[in-house]
């Protein structure tokens, strides 16, 4: 028996989720059920897996279960980028074919999401806006030079943007220059995730606010998926649980739970937009990965995201005092970029947990007889979760493809972590060191 110890415990102050209309009451796990497939976790990966299973097997019963409301967890808490390019570390991979496989998988995910958004009329501020990668000072410009070389080696389109042109978009002269890449899409993550959940095929039953406490196999080989008030029996279980996969006893000591934080403003007025000379609907990530992400949404909210914390107990690792300190730090970063908007308040500050691995490797595959998982997106979750969840369902039903071969080729086993307390000490020290080195870019 694998018993869940730590459950999701996200804060109640996510701006993306708060901006959504009220949802109908959830249907929860109650009583005993039988299903052909159970998908645990209703983020990007779990939603994609449940949808693909239903498409393959329209006569089968698929149950999708989540501990919280759909869009309340990590998938609805990111900064709203759907990135086609591999992660910075993956861009440095020595094998060009490895990088091309990643590009193809990410772009397939974007195409898939765009099709679903159009087909089901999902209102989520979806936009082919591209992405800026910005540098502030000498350190950031060094990273930007390296990124430009990687892009040239990859043969991907990009454009160098100087301070004046960049200021005309951002409404801030804080950045010295940036590199613009056109393949990124922007969206409202909680709206997109909820829309994906509301548009699932009819043979998918969604159970929310139903944390799974144990995962146990009976003598006949059937998995017993047990919650507080109910039980699901199924021969096949797909885990779209990211960092929480370790709570089921799998990939233990191989995943690192990290939380990053964001704050956003109320929508800016016409006068405020004119004062700074900003455009709406853009996104900038830092050339130095420990710097600050900045976004302007279509409804003209400014978002500041930075600060990383090692959270071994997930949301319970973060106190109110810590959140208040992070909000103050976000305020400093905001006013450094937009001193003319010092009077504009933040309305929400929130965090989201994701999984990274020490060797920056994503897991994808079969963990046990009848148990499949995709875990550890290493901070690039929207595209990767979508394509890995889709292909995990293909694997579970035996539907082979070139994409399935590609994802097997670019994934592996995350490296083992040192034991506690050395792990926590090391991670915290590394985060502090990165923050110190990157202070000029924050």
From TrEMBL:
**Uppermost EC category:** oxidoreductase
GO cellular component term, pick one = cytoplasm
Q: Which UniProt keywords apply?
A: Oxidoreductase
Entry keyword Transferase: no
Give the matching Pfam families.
Answer: DAO
Transmembrane ranges, per UniProt, are none
Domain FAD dependent oxidoreductase, by residue range, is: 36-395
GO: which molecular function terms? oxidoreductase activity
Question: So what EC number does this one have?
Answer: 1.-.-.-
- Listed name of the protein: FAD-binding oxidoreductase
Which lineage do the record's taxonomy fields give for this organism?
Bacteria, Pseudomonadati, Pseudomonadota, Gammaproteobacteria, Pseudomonadales
């Amino acid at each position: 028996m694998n018993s869940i110890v730590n459950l999701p415990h996200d804060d109640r102050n996510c701006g993306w989720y708060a901006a959504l209309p009220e949802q109908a009451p959830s249907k929860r796990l109650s009583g005993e059920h039988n299903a052909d497939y159970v998908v645990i976790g209703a983020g990007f990966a779990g939603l994609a897996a449940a949808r693909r299973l239903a498409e393959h097997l329209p006569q089968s019963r698929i149950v999708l279960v989540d501990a919280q409301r759909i869009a309340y967890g990590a998938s609805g808490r990111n900064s709203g980028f759907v990135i086609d390019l591999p992660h910075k570390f993956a861009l440095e991979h020595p094998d060009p074919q490895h990088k091309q496989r990643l590009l193809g998988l990410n772009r397939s995910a974007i195409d898939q999401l765009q099709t679903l958004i159009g087909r089901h009329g999902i209102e989520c501020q979806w936009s082919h806006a591209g992405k800026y990668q910005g540098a502030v000072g000498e350190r950031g410009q060094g990273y930007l030079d390296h990124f430009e070389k990687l892009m040239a080696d990859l043969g991907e389109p990009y454009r160098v943007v100087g301070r004046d042109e960049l200021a005309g978009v951002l409404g801030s002269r804080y950045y010295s220059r940036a590199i613009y890449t056109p393949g990124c899409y922007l969206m409202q993550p909680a709206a997109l995730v909820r829309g994906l959940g509301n548009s699932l095929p009819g043979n998918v039953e969604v159970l929310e606010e139903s944390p799974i406490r144990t995962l146990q196999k009976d003598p006949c080989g059937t998995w017993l998926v047990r919650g507080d008030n109910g039980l699901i029996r199924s021969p096949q279980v797909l885990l779209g649980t990211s960092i929480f996969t370790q709570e089921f006893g799998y990939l233990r000591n191989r995943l690192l739970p990290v939380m990053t934080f964001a704050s956003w403003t109320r929508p800016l007025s016409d006068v405020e937009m004119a004062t700074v000379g900003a455009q709406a609907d853009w996104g900038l990530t830092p050339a130095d990965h420990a710097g600050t992400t900045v976004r302007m949404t279509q409804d003209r909210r400014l978002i500041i995201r930075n600060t990383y914390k090692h959270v071994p107990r997930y949301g319970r690792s973060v106190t109110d005092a810590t959140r208040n300190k992070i909000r103050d730090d976000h305020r400093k970063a905001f006013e450094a970029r937009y001193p003319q908007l010092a009077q504009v308040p933040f309305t929400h500050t929130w965090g989201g947990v994701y999984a990274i691995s020490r060797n920056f490797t994503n897991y994808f595959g079969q963990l046990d007889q009848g148990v499949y998982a995709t875990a550890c997106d290493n901070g690039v979750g929207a595209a990767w979760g979508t394509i890995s969840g889709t292909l995990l369902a293909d694997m579970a039903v035996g539907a082979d493809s070139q994409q399935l071969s590609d994802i097997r080729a670019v994934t592996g086993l995350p490296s083992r972590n040192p034991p506690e307390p050395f792990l926590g000490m090391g991670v915290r020290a590394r985060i502090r060191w990165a923050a110190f080195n990157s202070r000029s870019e924050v």
